[in-house]
Structures are given as structure tokens and as C-alpha cells.
Write a structure and sequence with these properties.
The complex is a heterodimer of chains A (about 220) and B (about 500). Chain A has helices at about 10-20, 35-40, 60-70, 85-90, 105-120, 150-160, 170-175, 190-200, and strands at about 1-5, 25-30, 45-50, 75-80, 95-100, 125, 130-135, 140, 145, 165-170, 205-210, 215-220. Chain A is of the alpha/beta class. Chain A has two domains: about 1-120, Response regulator (Rossmann fold); about 125-220, Winged helix-like DNA-binding domain superfamily/Winged helix DNA-binding domain (Arc Repressor Mutant, subunit A), CATH 1.10.10.10. In chain A, the strands form three sheets. Chain A has a five-stranded parallel beta sheet, sandwiched between helices. In chain A, a hairpin with a 2-residue loop joins strand 6 and strand 7. In chain A, helix 2 runs parallel beside helix 3. The two termini of chain A are about 25 Å apart. The longest helix of chain B is centred in the middle third of the chain and has 51 residues, at about 250-300. Chain B has about 500 residues and is α+β, with helices and mostly antiparallel strands. Chain B has a five-stranded antiparallel beta sheet. In chain B, strands 9-11-12-14-13 form a five-stranded mixed beta sheet. In chain B, strands 1-2 form a two-stranded antiparallel ribbon. The chains are: A alpha/beta (about 220), B alpha+beta (about 500). The interface of A and B includes residues 11, 22 and 81 of A.
């Protein structure tokens, strides 16, 4: 995975680059907006991580130009500003996600991975011993195929895409049917129960979050 | 050294101390009224006294004139006859002179030194004059015992004395004619004049006072308006004071007040900008510090040395705490009135917001070994909408949950819920942690006040919550939970 990190603070850039490399990314660092823009436009990256307060050309401008030229490229924005206006400006300029400094590295890594999953949705996802192939619409646990009903498939898909986030009952019923009259949250527990049984031995489990929804957990 | 006013050397100083004479802390209205009416009163007294004097002088003159005439008339009745005197004074005339009981007239004709001829012998003698001029009336005051009734009662009289010569040329003789008249009528006349002039004058004073009082009230009304405008505003409202149709002086005062307000506003804004800028500037280096320590902690060399690892762990915790403090300071700056006013208020579902925030915080809670959840609510339940800045309220809820996660301790559970209670939405965050002693439950809402030194809190979380909630016309309290735990309750007004 090729990642461009545009950050002008050398201490932060150095630490992030080292951590990201340790996590398996191929990291390129740009210390100003001009370099970041050049690299992002001329080279093929899988994801860009952009600080908004860059010298020479500010991050928002870089973001707009990249978005115009490469609408598919996932872009993650880092910023020291966290006011609502800045957040809205960043997302309007085309950022796919937004993280306020200072942050914990695991959080950044999780967000980057979630972003890659979302934009490379068709790709095969490996979680624990579960292999989830959206394109072929096939799931296996340790090479054994999983028989999943359409509702179970949608449920598992939601839990996997929103890993590290609570999936609410509303989201589940909306995923099942867009018609509000047929949305019945009463049956969710039945499907969760069945899915849990089918995921036995996959090192992936579903945690019930009281009153809120469900969360996918992976044993390590 | 204290500067002494030159006034202190003057007797004015004593005057300045008289309550009511100096504006001081007294009412300006009373002060003006006093200083406008006091001179009028003095003038009134002076005018009355002057009028009385004048009336007295004129009545005196008129009466003196009539006395002189009377004395001459009387003198004409006494005709010298040879060496004697012939008195031709008819009884009828006498009666007329003495008839009026209120205006007693006494007369006496004598030939000095002391020979009484005619009239009332009690008429007081004239003051001794060395060489009286003949035919010239001398006027003086005296008293006469009341001839009728009580003889001890004395009557004040005005007397005219007229010396006349008679007798033969070789043997000149003098005759003294005195006519006395009671002063009563004179005084009465003077008093009547006094009353006639001072009564309308008093009426004028009263009328004047009413007009002056009305004028002062009307004139000071803009001041009272300014006062009520200033009194009725919130302590953090630094917007300029608006006064319509105010006189120049009050507008000047309002302008001065507005200039001061503008300066304070500018200072407050500068300070807030500084805090905000400083916080933003601190974030990047703190992110660097955190990332570097995380990286070092992950390295094998550090992992092999437990002491180094522990020290580095402390550096990391400290950096995390500083980062948290910076974020909270920024949140506080945002929650403060100036900033909050600029942000829009919208209508939103508090229940939905609480569930969203709780869901976001679940991974954080799980890391801390805490079971975070929400009350089971059926989706069909009516929404509980409140009016406010959704972003700030979200910040408040995040802070309450974050606080519970920090202090409830591993193994505890936290429950978030929203109920409708009358016209209020009641949001609660309840934990099964160790709770908080009653003495601390109010104190922890103060900035930088912390109930415990465990956890990485900075003492701003609850201060931010209170700032935000009160800004949205709500309230927040901490309550104990039986058998164990703490519940934070936020009440916000519901909107339809």
C-alpha cells in the first residue's frame, strides 16, 4: 500500500512515517504543499494523509486540486484545527476522513485501514480466520465456506465495514430494507444469534453493546 | 501621598458633608430639586421681609401724615386769647375722634413744662428736645394705658408732637399739641399688604416647585432608562448600549460606556484568540511527542529494558494529558458566550445525539475495561427535541461519558439515557463506580477542580459541561446512585 504523508512538522512526520512503515505501508513524506501536490498528482498512491497547515501551498488547496484530478484517491486530513467550520471546510474540499491532532497512532492506523476498506470495498477482506469476498459474494472460515442468508450477509458486511464502530439497530434494519414500514428491529437478535454460531472458530465475535447495537471483535 | 482638594480648606467642606447637599450617594433628582428650590425659598423669604418693610414704611408715612394733619387741626381749635387759650373743641368732634375702638386716638394739649390743658393726660411725653422748632411735627412711638377696660393693658401708639407759639410778642409761650394713634391699625395694614403680596408669591413657589420637579424627573428619565438597560443585561453581554432619543449628556455617558465596553470586548477577544491560537500551535508538537514516544515504546530495545519502558510510558502519559488539556481549553473557549453566540442554534433530537455519542465512545470504554451502554428504547418512541448548538451539546455529552470512563474504574458499567420529564428533556450518564462524596459534587464543576488525582483528567471536563448546558438554558447536577455509583443529570428545555 503506497501512502503519501504530507506533514511539515519533522518530528511528527518522522514518527508517523516510522510507525506506518512498521505497519506495512510504503510511506513517502512531503514536507510542504507544493511537493505533496506534485507527488500526489504525478505518482500512484493508494491513499494520501494530508496536514492542513502546510507551507507554500496550504492543505485545503492541495486537497481540492487532487480531488479534481483524482476523484477516487482516498484522502485523510490531519489538522490542529477542530472547529466546526474547519471540519466542514475540510470535508467539503473532498476529505474522506478527518483526524484532529494530537491523536493516538492506533486510531490513525485504524482510520486509514477503514478508509482503504471503504474505497477498495470490492477487495477481499481478511479478519481473523474469516475471509470475506464481496466480489464473489463468498465467505469462508478457515477455508470452510459459510452459508449465509441475504440478511446475515448484509449484517456481517456492515459489521466488517464498520469495524471498531458500533453498528446500530437502525443501521441494520436500513441495510435490510429501505422501506421504513418493513423495518422490524425485533428480529435482529435472532440473526445475530445465528451469525454468532456460524462465526464459531473464526476468531471473530460479535459483542452486544447494551441499548446501542453490535460491535465486531477480533481475537489476537 | 493622598492629594487633598483645595476645597478642604474652605468652610464649604462642612457644607459638603451635609447630607442631601452633595450628590454623593444620594439621589441626583433630590439634589437638583434641593438646589433649585433652596434659592427660591431664600428669595421668597427676602421678598417677604422686604415687602413687609416697604409696606410698613409706606403705612407709617401715610399715618404719620394724617397724624400731623390731625395735630394741626387740633391746634387750630386752640386759639390764644390774650394770655390764655380758648379751646373750641366741640364734643361731637371729640366723640368722632375717639369713637373707633380699634383705632384709638388719644390727644393732649399742654403748655410745657407740664400744664395739662385738654385731652388725655396719659399720652406719652415727647423725647426731650433742646430747642424744639415751632410748627414742626415730631413723630415718635410710645405706649398708653388702655383707658377703657383693663388699665394695665398697654396700647402701642404712634404719637405726633407739635410745638406752637402763642402769647404776646413780649412774652412768648409755647403750647404742645400731641395726638397719639394706636399702632394696631398700622400693623394690620402692613400685615395685610404682606399677605396680599406673599400669598401669590407662595403659590408661585409651589407651582414652580411642581414644574421644576417635573422637569427634573423628565430630564433624568433617560438616565433611569440607561440604568435599567445596563441593569437588565447579562454580565457577559458586551454589546454596545443602545439609547434612543436621549439628551446629549446621557448620550455622552452611553458613548463613554460603549467605548469602555468595546475596549473590554476587544481585550476579551484578544485573550480568547490567544488561547485558541496557542492551543492550536501546541497541538502539532504534542502530536509529534506522542507519536515519537509511541514509536519508542514499540521498539525492541525499549521493550527489553523495563525501567526505560516505564519512564517512556510516563512521558507518553504526560503528553496525552497535555493533549487532552489543550483540547479541553479549546472546547472551553468555544463554549464561552462570545463564541457560542456566533454559533447557530438548531432543533435536534437529544435521544439520538446521546446514542450516537455513546456508540462512538464504546471502543474507548472497552479499552478501559468498561461496559458502556444505553437504556433500551424502542425506536418508535417519540423523539425528544431540544434547541441549542448541537456541536456544543455533543461536546458536553462526550465530556460526561469520558468522565465516567475515567473515574468509574475497570469493571464498572456506564449507562446513558434520555427521558422526557414534563417540559424538560432529562439526559443522564450513570456509572457503577465509586461515586463522589457530597462535598465534592458541586466543587468538581469549577475549573481545574478535581476530586481525585487518579486518572488523566485535567479538571476542565465538568466545567465545560456546565458552561455549555447553562448556555443552552439547562442545568447539570451530580447525584449519588444506590447502592453505588454516580449519575450526572442534564436537564434541557424540550421544544415541540
Amino acid at each position: 500500500m503506497k501512502l503519501l504523508l504530507a506533514e511539515d512538522d519533522s518530528i511528527l512526520a518522522d514518527a508517523l512515517a516510522a510507525s506506518l512503515k512498521a505497519s506495512g505501508f510504503d510511506v513517502e513524506v512531503a514536507s510542504n504543499g507544493a511537493v505533496a501536490e506534485y507527488l500526489l498528482l504525478r505518482h500512484d498512491f493508494d491513499i494520501g494523509v494530508l496536514d492542513l497547515g502546510l507551507p507554500l501551498i496550504d492543505g485545503l488547496t492541495v486537497l481540492k486540486k487532487v480531488r479534481a484530478a483524482k476523484p477516487e484517491l482516498p484522502m485523510m486530513v490531519l489538522t490542529a484545527l477542530d472547529g466546526l467550520e474547519q471540519r466542514v471546510a475540510g470535508l467539503n474540499a473532498g476529505a474522506d476522513d478527518y483526524l484532529t491532532k494530537p491523536f493516538d497512532f492506533p486510531e490513525l492506523e485504524a482510520r486509514i485501514r477503514a478508509l482503504l476498506r471503504r474505497t477498495h470495498g470490492a477487495a477481499v477482506q481478511l479478519t481473523g480466520l474469516l475471509r470475506f469476498d464481496r466480489e464473489a459474494r463468498r465467505a469462508t472460515v478457515d477455508k470452510t465456506p459459510l452459508e449465509l442468508s441475504p440478511r446475515e450477509w448484509t449484517l456481517l458486511d456492515l459489521l466488517l465495514t464498520q469495524r471498531d464502530h458500533v453498528v446500530t439497530k437502525e443501521q441494520i434494519v436500513q441495510g435490510w430494507t429501505p422501506d421504513p414500514n418493513e423495518q422490524n428491529p425485533g428480529s435482529i437478535e435472532v440473526y445475530i444469534h445465528r451469525l454468532r454460531r456460524k462465526l464459531d472458530g473464526s476468531k471473530v465475535s460479535i459483542r452486544t453493546v447494551r441499548g446501542l447495537g453490535y460491535l465486531l471483535e477480533v481475537e489476537v | 501621598m493622598r492629594q487633598t482638594s483645595w476645597l478642604s480648606w474652605l468652610p464649604l467642606r462642612a457644607l459638603r458633608r451635609v447630607p442631601g447637599l452633595t450628590p454623593g450617594t444620594r439621589s441626583l433628582q433630590r439634589h437638583l430639586l434641593l438646589w433649585l428650590l433652596l434659592p427660591q425659598l431664600v428669595l421668597w423669604l427676602a421678598a417677604a421681609s422686604f415687602t413687609y418693610q416697604l409696606a410698613d414704611t409706606y403705612t407709617n408715612r401715610a399715618i404719620d401724615g394724617s397724624l400731623s394733619t390731625a395735630s394741626r387741626a387740633l391746634a387750630r381749635q386752640v386759639k390764644p386769647s390774650g394770655s390764655g387759650l380758648l379751646i373750641d373743641f366741640p364734643r361731637a368732634a371729640q366723640d368722632i375722634i375717639e369713637a373707633d375702638p380699634d383705632d384709638r386716638v388719644f390727644y393732649m394739649v399742654s403748655t410745657p413744662p407740664g400744664e395739662f390743658i385738654l385731652g388725655n393726660s396719659q399720652v406719652p411725653p415727647p423725647p426731650p428736645i433742646a430747642e424744639p422748632r415751632l410748627g414742626q411735627p415730631y413723630l415718635y412711638d410710645g405706649t398708653v394705658h388702655d383707658p377703657g377696660g383693663d388699665s394695665r393693658r398697654e396700647v402701642n401708639v404712634r404719637v405726633v408732637a407739635l410745638y406752637l407759639a402763642y402769647g404776646e410778642p413780649g412774652k412768648p409761650q409755647r403750647m404742645l399739641v400731641q395726638v397719639a394713634r394706636s399702632r394696631a391699625s398700622r400693623e394690620e395694614l402692613a400685615q395685610q399688604i404682606l399677605i396680599d403680596t406673599t400669598l401669590p408669591l407662595s403659590g408661585l413657589i409651589v407651582l414652580m416647585s411642581i414644574i421644576v420637579w417635573g422637569g427634573i424627573r423628565g430630564g433624568l428619565a433617560p438616565l433611569a432608562r440607561l440604568r435599567s438597560v445596563v441593569e437588565s443585561r447579562a454580565p457577559n453581554d458586551l454589546a454596545p448600549v443602545r439609547l434612543e432619543a436621549a439628551p446629549e449628556e446621557v448620550r455622552g455617558l452611553a458613548r463613554a460606556l460603549n467605548a469602555l465596553l468595546a475596549e473590554v470586548r476587544e481585550n476579551v477577544n484578544t485573550q480568547k484568540r490567544f488561547i485558541s491560537d496557542a492551543a492550536h500551535q501546541l497541538r502539532t508538537p504534542l502530536a509529534g511527542l506522542k507519536s515519537q514516544t509511541e514509536l519508542a515504546l514499540a521498539s525492541a530495545t525499549v521493550g527489553a529494558d523495563p525501567e526505560l519502558r516505564a519512564r517512556l510510558q510516563r512521558v507518553h502519559e504526560s503528553a496525552t494529558r497535555s493533549a487532552h488539556l489543550v483540547s479541553q481549553l479549546l472546547a472551553l473557549a468555544r463554549a464561552e458566550p462570545e463564541a457560542a453566540m456566533a454559533q447557530s442554534r438548531t432543533r435536534f433530537d437529544l435521544q439520538r445525539l446521546a446514542r450516537e455519542v455513546a456508540a462512538e465512545q464504546v471502543p474507548h470504554a472497552l479499552t478501559a475495561g468498561i461496559d458502556l451502554g444505553s437504556e433500551d428504547t424502542d425506536a418508535a418512541a417519540a423523539s425528544l427535541c431540544v434547541l441549542g448548538n448541537a456541536m456544543l451539546i455533543r461536546e458536553a455529552v462526550v465530556n460526561l461519558i469520558d468522565n465516567a470512563i475515567r473515574y468509574a474504574g475497570r469493571g464498572a458499567s456506564i449507562t446513558v439515557g434520555v427521558h422526557g420529564q414534563g417540559a424538560q428533556a432529562l439526559l443522564f450518564v450513570e456509572d457503577t463506580g465509586p461515586g463522589l462524596p457530597e462535598a465534592d459534587r458541586e466543587r468538581v464543576f469549577q475549573r481545574f477542580a478535581r476530586a481525585t488525582h487518579e486518572g488523566n483528567g485535567c479538571g476542565l471536563g465538568l466545567a465545560i459541561v456546565r458552561e455549555i448546558v447553562e448556555r443552552s438554558s439547562g442545568s447539570v447536577v451530580l447525584e449519588p446512585v444506590q447502592p453505588q455509583g454516580l449519575r450526572a443529570v442534564v436537564r434541557l428545555p424540550l421544544v415541540a
